[in-house]
Write a structure and sequence with these properties.
The complex is a heterodimer.
Chain A (H helix, E strand, L loop, with lengths): L3 E2 L5 E4 L4 E7 L6 E7 L6 E6 L3 E5 L2 E6 L4 E6 L8 E8 L8 E3 L3 E6 L1
Parallel strand pairs in A: 2-11
Antiparallel strand pairs in A: 1-3, 3-8, 4-5, 4-9, 6-7, 7-8, 9-10, 9-11
Chain B lengths: L3 E4 L2 E4 L5 E7 L5 E8 L3 E8 L6 E2 L6 E5 L5 E5 L8 E8 L8 E2 L3 E5 L1
Parallel strand pairs in B: 2-11
Antiparallel strand pairs in B: 1-3, 3-8, 4-5, 4-9, 5-6, 7-8, 9-10, 9-11
Chain lengths: 113, 113
């Protein structure tokens, strides 16, 4: 079982719709959770992080964390074609004094104009 | 611009050749990382340095060596390149505290023929 799992997609949504991206993780002791956006041919860029159960909102983005279910999601409201990218979920594993992230393989989001 | 600088951006090597990928950050980050990204495999950790003077193996260290030259610089060396090392390599850095995400460099696209 992979430590961080994501559906590879592509997830296709119409412009203006809500895109819902999901991620599950296997290490129950994981403490911090991150969402990165990666455009084709570019490097990942951090868009959200969350470490408490519940929702965290930042503009059109909402991260949701449920530690009991080992599940983290990213909602993108009013999706735009410029949101088309691969979204990477990353988890900070317990047990290290260092910030070592394990990444999922990413979900490709395609927003249709 | 402040951030993580990687050189070179592109490189073609012949099997058996050696090379060093350079990475430098100017954000006073403690921790630095080398990842490789392959289609369908996501980002996989090669080596990391939690702080100046320390280095540790990640998930896929075979065939690589690293040097944390000082707090700013972290290099990755391929002693005898193999076609399996064809990949995109990303350097990243962060503060040591677990709630901070990484800042990534722009990547090095390496092809070994």
């Amino acid at each position: 079982q992979k430590e961080v799992e994501q559906n590879s997609g592509p997830l296709s949504v119409p412009e203006g719709a809500i895109a819902s991206l999901n991620c599950t993780y296997s290490d129950r002791g994981s403490q911090s959770f991150f969402w990165y956006r990666q455009y084709s041919g570019k490097s990942p860029e951090l868009i959200m992080f969350i470490y408490s159960n519940g929702d965290k909102e930042d503009g059109r983005f909402t991260a949701q964390l449920n530690k009991a279910s080992q599940y983290v999601s990213l909602l993108i409201r009013d999706s735009q074609p410029s949101d088309s990218a691969t979204y990477l979920c990353a988890v900070n594993l317990l047990g290290g004094a260092t910030n070592k992230l394990i990444f999922g393989t990413g979900t490709l989001l395609a927003v249709q104009p | 611009n402040a951030g993580v600088t990687q050189t070179p951006k592109f490189q073609v090597l012949k099997t058996g050749q050696s090379m060093t990928l350079q990475c430098a950050q100017d954000m006073n980050h403690n921790s630095m990382y080398w990842y490789r990204q392959d289609p369908g495999m996501g980002l996989r950790l090669i080596y990391y340095s939690a702080s100046e003077g320390t280095t540790d193996k990640g998930e896929v260290p075979n065939g690589y060596n690293v040097s944390r030259l000082n707090k700013r610089e972290f290099s990755l060396r391929l002693e005898s390149a193999a076609p399996s090392q064809t990949s995109v390599y990303f350097c990243a850095s962060t503060h040591k505290v677990s709630n901070y995400g990484y800042t990534f460099g722009s990547g090095t696209r390496l092809t070994v023929v």
